[in-house]
């Protein structure tokens, strides 16, 4: 059975599984078959789109509709595009301006969530964020006076809405950003646009960890471990999502470094301090904006406050991970979990002399080269390990969109077909992909083969292969001796993979 595995990252930590399962409602059946599309540099992160349709031509129309809606909404809501409607409006002060329904709606939602969260979610938190970024750039801690001034500015009233006349008045110069849930809002609109395409029965849109499922489809979604954020790491929960939104926020992927310490990009606008007591918050909600708003808010609030807020919001379930690793779930979280959600026990290592030291892992970092287009389809990528006999012992990652183009990954395809012949197990049944800041991905190898057994210590070759449909091709290879001595290697970049590094290290 074919299975496509995607890992959701960006603002959040979700592993996103696309494919068949034993549940009848998950498979395509008469609803059509899934077509997947992957892009880099969409809203500053990566896009994964899945469409269920009767033909590729219909799915392509849905893809075009979703991309057009993303572009349209970004031109309205982006805080980073100086030409966006939000940016133009925010540069003016003191006069009412007629705004689009979308921008008015998002500003109204921020007003609602500011009140509902007790000030924990605020578009003007950008004022605090800028203080921390400037201090980090100057290699110092923010001065108390700087933070106090920012917090005072946050407490002010920043706009006034007149929904009857469709206008908004910007009231002060406090910096604003809508990134707390504007991306989630756009994801929801993109999913709706794809679903309204004639002949489409379901759509799943994921941008940077914000995920929406719409239509006749139950999506398996896995929540990734915030303490082990490689794309192929084991998730901490597996869910089944139907006609709902999922968002995850966390404190460990973005932020600033000052004097060797990491400070989260998520700040409490009431205190001016980065938050670290909750390192991951995953929220399932009926709509994308609620999921995104709550995921950020729950990283700021204390768990008991988050519980009360969720109980006042219909259709919301959540999972929090505290800084000490404690997991705190809502009362209905278990109902979302997929059957057999408990992790399977790791098979015991096969008897072997001088096996891989289980205290070590190989970290693999790679960066996909940026091309001229702001938005570009991701190349097909395979990462795998071969032993000294050139036998492929483990496929670490395989990212693709159409199975018919897999032979473009010439070395991987040939090697794994050999492995499939000798073991009778086609490796294309297990496929992984990831969502990160655009083009940057982390993987790991735990020293186990495709059967879950630790390999022997010794020399192995790491392969990274990339290809585009009818386009460029690149392969990188590096031999390492996995003998219990830490080591690192930088691999020279190329056309498709601009940089890659290997680090054999203790976990």
UniProtKB/TrEMBL annotation:
It catalyses: L-threonyl-[protein] + FAD = FMN-L-threonyl-[protein] + AMP + H(+). The lineage of its organism: Bacteria, Pseudomonadati, Acidobacteriota, Terriglobia, Bryobacterales. The keyword Cell division does not apply. Residues 1-26 form the signal peptide. InterPro entries: ApbE, ApbE-like_sf, DUF2271. Pfam families: ApbE (PF02424), DUF2271 (PF10029). Its cofactor is Mg(2+). Keywords: FAD, Flavoprotein, Lipoprotein, Magnesium, Metal-binding, Signal, Transferase. GO terms for molecular function: metal ion binding; transferase activity. This is FAD:protein FMN transferase. PANTHER family: FAD:PROTEIN FMN TRANSFERASE, THIAMINE BIOSYNTHESIS LIPOPROTEIN APBE. It comes from the Bacteria. The keyword Transferase applies. SUPFAM superfamilies: ApbE-like (SSF143631). Its EC number is 2.7.1.180.
């Amino acid at each position: 059975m074919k299975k496509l595995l995607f890992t959701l990252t960006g603002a959040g930590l979700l592993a996103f599984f696309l494919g068949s399962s034993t549940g009848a409602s998950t498979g395509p059946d008469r609803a059509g078959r899934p077509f997947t599309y992957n892009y880099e540099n969409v809203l500053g992160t990566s896009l994964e789109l899945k469409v269920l349709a009767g033909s590729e031509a219909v799915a392509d129309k849905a893809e075009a509709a979703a991309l057009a809606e993303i572009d349209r909404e970004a031109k309205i809501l982006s805080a980073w595009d100086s030409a966006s409607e939000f940016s133009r409006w925010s540069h003016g002060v003191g006069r009412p301006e007629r705004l689009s329904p979308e921008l008015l709606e998002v500003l109204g939602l921020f007003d609602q969530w500011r009140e509902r969260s007790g000030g924990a979610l605020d578009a003007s938190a950008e004022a605090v964020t800028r203080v921390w970024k400037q201090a980090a750039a100057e290699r110092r801690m923010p001065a108390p006076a700087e933070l106090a001034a920012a917090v005072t500015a946050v407490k002010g009233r920043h706009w006034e809405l007149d929904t009857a006349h469709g206008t908004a008045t910007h009231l002060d110069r406090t910096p604003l950003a809508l990134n707390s849930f504007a991306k989630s809002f756009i994801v929801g609109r993109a999913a709706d646009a794809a679903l309204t395409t004639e002949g489409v029965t379901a759509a799943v849109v994921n941008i940077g960890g914000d995920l929406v499922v719409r239509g006749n489809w139950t999506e398996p979604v896995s929540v990734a471990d915030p303490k082990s954020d490689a794309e192929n790491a084991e998730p901490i929960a597996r869910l089944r999502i139907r006609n709902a939104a999922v968002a995850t926020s966390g404190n460990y992927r973005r932020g600033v470094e000052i004097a060797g310490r990491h400070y989260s990009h998520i700040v409490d606008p009431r205190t001016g301090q980065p938050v670290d007591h909750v390192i991951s918050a995953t929220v399932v909600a009926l709509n994308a904006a609620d999921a995104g708003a709550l995921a950020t808010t729950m990283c700021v609030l204390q768990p008991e406050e988050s519980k009360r807020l969720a109980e006042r919001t219909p259709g919301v379930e959540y999972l929090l991970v505290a800084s000490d690793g404690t997991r705190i779930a809502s009362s209905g979280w278990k109902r979302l979990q997929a059957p057999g959600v408990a992790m399977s026990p790791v098979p015991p290592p096969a008897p072997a002399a001088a096996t891989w030291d289980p205290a070590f892992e190989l970290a693999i970092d790679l960066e996909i080269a940026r091309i001229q287009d702001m938005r570009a389809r991701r190349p097909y990528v395979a990462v795998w390990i071969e032993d000294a006999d050139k036998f492929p012992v483990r496929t670490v990652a395989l990212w693709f969109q159409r199975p018919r183009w897999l032979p473009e990954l010439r070395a991987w395809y040939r090697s794994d077909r050999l492995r499939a012949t000798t073991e009778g197990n086609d490796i294309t049944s297990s496929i992984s992909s990831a969502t990160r800041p655009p083009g940057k991905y982390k993987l790991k190898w735990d020293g186990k083969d495709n059967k879950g057994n630790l390999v022997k210590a010794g020399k192995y070759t790491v392969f990274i292969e990339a290809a585009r449909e009818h386009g460029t091709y690149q392969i990188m290879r590096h031999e390492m001796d996995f003998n219990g001595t830490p080591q690192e290697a930088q691999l020279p970049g190329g056309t498709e993979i601009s940089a890659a590094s290997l680090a054999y290290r203790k976990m």
